[in-house]
Design goal:
- There is one protein chain.
- The chain is mostly helical.
- It has a domain of 53 residues.
- Helices cover 72% and strands 0% of the residues.
- It has three helices and no strands.
């Protein structure tokens, strides 16, 4: 009876060791859960970025209005018949 109790106790120790430190342990589970949450956050950011890019592509496929707007904003282009005025900042009240 004593040997059986000792054997069961040793088996319990081995199983506890595997649970705490072995492959598939609780520490590894915690690490994998943290990694999963980080990857899910990164996927959410990328999904939002993809949605924005998809909207941009759809707008550009609609017509030339969006292209004109982008050209005006990014490249400083003006349309035919338009006049461009640029205001320069004052330099300490001394015009030169």
């Amino acid at each position: 009876m004593r040997w059986l109790a000792l054997g069961l106790f040793l088996l319990l120790l081995v199983l506890q060791y595997r649970l705490l430190f072995g492959e598939g342990s609780l520490a590894e589970l915690n690490r994998l859960e943290a990694e999963l949450s980080q990857l899910q956050a990164a996927n959410a950011e990328l999904r939002a970025r993809n949605d924005k890019l998809e909207l941009d592509v759809l707008e550009r496929q609609r017509g030339t209005e969006v292209l004109e707007e982008k050209a005006r904003e990014d490249l400083g282009m003006i349309g035919p018949g338009e006049v461009f005025y640029q205001d320069s900042p004052k330099q300490n009240g001394n015009p030169q």
